UniProtKB/TrEMBL annotation:
The keyword Transcription regulation does not apply. Belongs to the class-I pyridoxal-phosphate-dependent aminotransferase family. Keywords: Aminotransferase, Pyridoxal phosphate, Transferase. This is Aminotransferase.
């Protein structure tokens, strides 16, 4: 009898975490490494949020809470959806988990049966397909490349839907491409979904506040109210509020689904950290004036990275609408040989050679389901970004055929 579960055969470790770990190991060994693989802001959590957490500790708010969130946080989330997204939810329609990843995992575990299909536009966040597989479902990736702005087209969605389709996962702005769907583009997808009432939508809005060049964020339940009862709208405090380590994500959706997700959570982790929940209340109800300066800084970094990468031979880097990633193509680098003698026969080989020869850590496109490309996170200081991009350009200039 095997000791380990067969479920492990269906999934692989996170490539993002693997690359970040390798960069940390090299740095610990004394190498000069610039990490552009981790997806977290380099800002400190705002003071009023940290003070709220300290206050919660001093007031003894350190015990178990309701499985899927304290009432105060659920009320704050309802108010956020009403204020920012024109969506009306009751606390009974809110789930709070240990990060957005757990919320999504709970939803998939609560709804997927063997053979159920989940449509996932590619490139995608690395965890979506593996979470579907762990839940017993079948991921159905649909390629949405740079020629279509990294966005799923309505005819592609129509062609991908089958009687076994249970979910469509949308992430806007996207990890890894930074592409966003505006209201008209969401409306076109909604028109398809209205013809297929058995398909639900999981809308991952975690990068909502990080949009550029006048792009106006919208979420699909807001654009098409008739889809609201078929939509789970996921968000969290990790990205916009620089609270990745606090591990608070949340979602709004139909009560039946929210209750089912709570059952999953009750037998896995139980409640999220009580201190983090009170910090999240402060994040959602307190001052929001830091969001705009942070957004402006991220836009400046985006422009720097896009401009510098497009100077590197063999790289074509689109300018994204949001998040803090770029997803450049390296199609013209495939088949070359690096100065160190490494053959670049894939984007994984490119990323490995880049790290070993220049000390720059990026994530290969293979991890996101669309090659040949790589993802850069520009959630780091401008000086490091400039130096990293110059190293990437030098690496590309040294490629030979």
């Amino acid at each position: 009898m095997p000791f380990l579960s067969a479920a492990l055969d269906r999934v692989k470790p996170s490539p993002t975490i693997a690359m970040t770990t390798r960069a940390m190991e090299m740095r610990a060994a004394g190498r000069d490494v610039i990490g552009l693989s981790a997806g977290e802001p380099d800002f400190d959590t705002p003071d009023h949020i940290r003070e709220a957490a300290i206050r919660a500790i001093r007031e003894g708010r350190t015990r178990y809470t309701a499985v899927d969130g304290i009432p105060e946080l659920k009320q704050a989330i309802c108010a956020k959806f009403a204020r920012e997204n024109s969506l009306d939810y009751a606390p009974s329609q809110i789930s709070v988990g240990t990060g957005g990843k757990q919320v999504i995992y709970n939803a998939l575990m609560a709804t997927l049966n063997p053979g159920d299909e989940v449509i996932i536009p590619a490139p995608y966040w690395v965890s979506y397909p593996d979470m579907v597989l762990l839940a017993g479902g079948t991921p159905v990736p649909v390629t949405a490349g740079p020629e279509q702005g990294f966005r799923l087209m309505p005819d592609q969605l129509e062609a991908a839907i089958t009687p076994r389709t249970k979910w469509l996962i949308l992430c806007s702005p996207s990890n890894p491409s930074g592409a966003g769907y505006d209201s008209a583009q969401l409306r076109a997808l909604a028109d398809v979904l209205l013809r297929h009432p058995h398909v639900r939508v999981l809308s991952d809005d975690i990068y909502e506040h990080l949009v550029f060049d006048g792009f106006r964020f919208a979420t699909i339940a807001q654009v098409e109210p008739r889809l609201k009862d078929r939509t789970l709208t996921v968000n969290g405090v990790s990205k916009a509020y620089a609270m990745t380590g606090w591990r608070i994500g949340y979602a709004a959706g139909p009560e039946e689904l929210i209750r089912a997700m709570a059952r999953i959570q009750s037998q896995s982790t139980s409640n999220p950290c009580s201190i983090s929940q009170w910090a999240a209340v402060a994040a959602l109800t307190g001052p929001q004036d830091f969001l705009e300066p942070n957004r402006t800084l991220f836009q400046k970094r985006r422009d720097l990275v896009v401009d510098l990468l497009n100077q590197a031979p063999g790289i074509a880097c689109p300018r994204p609408q949001g998040a803090f990633y770029v997803y450049p193509s390296i199609a013209d680098c495939i088949g070359a040989v690096s100065r160190g003698g490494r053959r670049i026969d894939s984007d994984t080989a490119f990323a490995e050679a880049l790290l070993e020869e220049t000390g720059v850590a990026v994530v290969p496109g293979e991890a996101f389901g669309l090659s040949p490309a790589f993802r850069v996170s520009y959630a780091t200081g401008e000086d490091q970004l400039r130096e990293a991009c110059l190293r990437i350009r030098s690496f590309c200039e040294g490629l030979s055929r």
